[in-house]
Structure formats: structure tokens, C-alpha cells
Amino acid sequence: MPLSSPPRVRGLVLAAGAGRRMGGPKALLPAPGGGTLVEAAIRLLREGGCDTVTVVVGAQAAEVRAVVERLQPTAAGAAGPDLEVVECPEWDEGMGASLRAGLRHLRHHADAAAGAPVEAVLVTLVDLPDLTPAVVHRLLAPPAGGHREVTWRRELRRAAYDGAPGHPALIGRDFWDATIESAVGDRGAREVYRTHPHQLVECGDLATGRDVDTREEAGSWGLPSAERSRE
């Protein structure tokens, strides 16, 4: 059963990369728990507490979109704003382009789509196979002791694994413009986190946070490369 979530925090999956070292997009790789990695990332966010999710696609966009759209019908009815796909034409520039595309879309459309203002996004990458919903839930939890009310649009949080920053990362709406301006190449929101106070949320007891970039790394997770998965 999904864990309870704070209001107005939307999940954002970056799934636009070509996965050249893997032989194809990592989004389409089989996931350890069944389905594909993009499906696993969506489940991660939903079960961890994000009621609404946006997926950014790029390389082989039609194929990845088709996988995502199979998940769109929900208990609420047919395809709707709880799960949407955004295409990034500049996906080949790197992760920064995908993050820009997702935030630009949400900046202009999220309020109407979600029925309430979206005050923050929780960003995850498609190639983090050992993340669990508990990681997401911890990132969305109120401060220990509950002594302050959370103003989500002003929040900056990031998962850490044995002290090393990683994903998912929570970006409040007040930081979206700065993130869009500085997200280039594969830097993502790094500059925003470097220049603003933020909370590191230790999750090393829940996952490693390691990504999958090569066929050798995929093998260590028991995942086939994209080429082998098509055989």
C-alpha cells in the first residue's frame, strides 16, 4: 500500500538517455522486481508517497512512452494527470536537458493538471535499481520532532548514501528557475545545491543509490544489457 504523502509534491523521473554504453535506453531494461526500469521508477515514487508523476523521455521516446502509458489507467479512471509523459527534444545534451524539460513543463502546466499548485518535485533517475519506496518516504517526511511546518516550495533536500549525495532529490518551486538556468550537461541541479542551504537525508541503511551505466554494472545487478534484453 502506498505510504501517505505530503500534498503538492510531484514525482519526476528522468528517463531520456540513450544508454549508449548499455546498447540502448536504460529505461527499457528489465527491472529486478519485474517490468522495466522506467516502470520500477514510477512504482518507486508512487509507493513512496508521490501521488502524481511526470516522466521525461527522449531517446526511443515512442517505445518508452508506450511502456509508461500502459501504466496510466488507475483506480481514478482512465489516463489522466496522475501520470504524464514529457518529451525532451534536447535529450542528447545530457541529464540537465531532461531536468530542464521536466521543470519547464511543470512550471507551466502542473497547477492545472494536478488540481492544486505543485510546490516541489522529487527527482529520480531511471537507472537506480536498488532504491526502495522507503527512501522516497524518508525524503518526504517532516523534520524530526515536527517542530516546523514544511513550506514545500522553499525546500531543498537530497538523499545521501554513507554521506555521499545522490538521488532522489527534492527541489522546491522557489528553486525551479535557478535550476532551469544552471542545469547543463550532466550537472542537473548540482549548482543549486552548491549555492543554497539544503538538507542531506541519509539513506545508506536503505539502499546503495548506485546507478547502472555500463554492461558490466548491469551484470552486477543481474540485469541484461539492452541488446541482450531484445534477444
TrEMBL record:
Residues 11-196 form the MobA-like NTP transferase domain. One of its GO terms (molecular function) is nucleotidyltransferase activity. Residues 209-218 have a biased composition (Basic and acidic residues). CDD domains: GT_2_like_f (cd04182). It comes from the Bacteria. Residues 209-231 are annotated as: Disordered. This is MobA-like NTP transferase domain-containing protein. It comes from Intrasporangium chromatireducens Q5-1.
